[in-house]
Amino acid sequence: MQVAIFILVVLVFVAVSGALARLVRVPLPVLQIALGAALAWPMRGIHVEIDPELFLLVFIPPLLFSDAYGAPKRELVALRGPILDLAIGLVFFTIVGFGYALHWLVPSVPLVVAIALAAVLSPTDAVAVSSIVDKNVVPARLMHILEGESLLNDASGLVMFRFAVAAVLTGSFSFAAASLTFLYAVAVGILAGVAALFVAAKALQLLNRIGGVPAEAQVLVMILLPFVAYLGAEHVGASGILAAVTAGVLTGGSGIFRFLGVSARIQTMSLWTTLSFVFNGALFILLGLQFPDIIGNVPPELSGRYPVIQPILTVLALTLCLIALRFLWISIGDIAASVVARLRKRKAEPFGLRVRLAGSVAGVRGAITLAGILSLPFTMPDGSPFPARDEVIFLAAGVIICSLAIASLALPRIARGLVEPGEDAGAAEERLARVAAAKAAIARIESIAGVEDGDEGEVPGARLAAADSIVAGYRRRIAASDEAEDARAEAREAGRLELEMRLAGIEAERAAVLAMFRSREINDHTKQALLTEITLTEALLNGRQARK
Question: Under a CB-based contact definition with an 8 Å cutoff, are residues 407 and 365 in contact?
Answer without folding.
Answer: no
